[in-house]
Amino acid sequence: MIDRRIVKFLKKHHVLTIATSVDNKPWCASCFYVFLEKENALVFTSDLTTRHGREFLMNNLVAGTVALETMITGMIRGVQFEGTVAEPGPDLEDITRNAYLKKFPVAMLMETHLWILRLTHIKYTDNRLGFGKKLIWKAE
Question: What is the Rg, in whole angstroms, of the alpha carbon atoms belonging to the chain?
Answer without folding.
Answer: 15
